[in-house]
């Protein structure tokens, strides 16, 4: 018996060791310096980055400066260059205290750089950790930046990073009539691509602004490569990738990242989605639900200074667990069941969805997240999760055919 236990212990230890090694050997594009540094030497550079843009223990901006690259300016996305702003909080321009480099916000007064912003720039470097979910706004920032870069004839280098939700594709495909900054293209909620693959799809399908697309074609004809993707090394789509830096304040770890595609729908409802707790997107509820359910109270905290239902005792659900358990439970699909059950139990159904000032459901944030007004109607009609999921299938099949053309990883 002791031998068996020892054998199992050694086997488990080897498994953990191999898992750690696999994690360690996944190298984001930014770490492959020789593949892109020659493109930047002697050029004036703009960098689109945030707190996730790390090369080992050093930030990309510091890494480039150390390589004698002239970084003229930094563009910052939602949550800001240092990644501390609340979700949706408008961020202004400022000078980075550490480097003295001007930071221009692309999540404030504007979403894309102006001609003046790029006048003294030769090439743009994009390096952001994405989580592979349509309404996570970094892919919208990517598109806006690409459009400006091509329009003003500036090549762009995308340093690719693994997608922690890259192992599956699921959810409703966006109807472009519902296009917004939380969903700009006809892709499902979980699209199963890295940000580098997504960039290639934007130009390959000619989904970017026609004027920018024409400028892209002119650059190609003149012998300039407008878009260069530096791929990750030793990465497979099925790999578990535990992000070394949290991608935003309310995605503190893999459990929240895995649940995010399923539970972010609560942002379009009056229920708390767990912001202002230690388990964002893993707990959700409302004061008017049954007191027999799990209870929690959202409070003010960094990254969620004024969360929904702040300081109110909420009743609902807690789906938090170890990341491996969460990934196994999710099993490669969006779990719409939770928002359906919350709607079923909510006492005033006409107040469940947050509506715009006009009162028109079509313009609701829930419909922007869903990418259509069908899901809301399906919920109101009492359709089952399985019926709703079946309605997604034709769109998913069509999207997967498109997606296949741009995949860089097995």
Describe the model.
With 410 residues, the protein is an alpha/beta fold. The chain has two domains: 205 residues, Rossmann fold (3-Layer(aba) Sandwich); 119 residues, no CATH class. 33% of the residues lie in helices and 12% in strands. It is built from 13 helices and twelve strands. It has a seven-stranded mixed sheet, with helices on both faces. A hairpin with a 2-residue loop joins β2 and β3. The longest helix is centred in the N-terminal third of the chain and has 24 residues. The chain starts with a helix and ends in a 7-residue tail after the last helix. The N terminus is likely disordered.
What is this structure's SSE topology?
Blueprint: H1 2-25, H2 37-40, E1 44-49, E2 54-55, E3 58-59, H3 60-66, E4 70-76, E5 94-95, E6 102-105, H4 115-118, E7 123-127, H5 138-151, E8 156-159, H6 195-204, H7 210-221, E9 227-230, H8 254-263, E10 283-286, E11 294-296, E12 314-318, H9 323-330, H10 337-345, H11 365-370, H12 374-380, H13 385-403
In terms of per-residue confidence, which ranges show pLDDT below 50 for 5 or more consecutive residues? 1-22
CATH topology of the largest domain: Rossmann fold
Mean pLDDT rating: 92
Distance between the amino and carboxyl termini: 41 Å
CATH superfamily of the largest domain: Uncharacterised protein PF07075, DUF1343
Largest sheet: 7 strands, mixed
The helix content, as a percent range, equals 25-40%
CATH class of the largest domain: Alpha Beta
The total of helices stands at 13
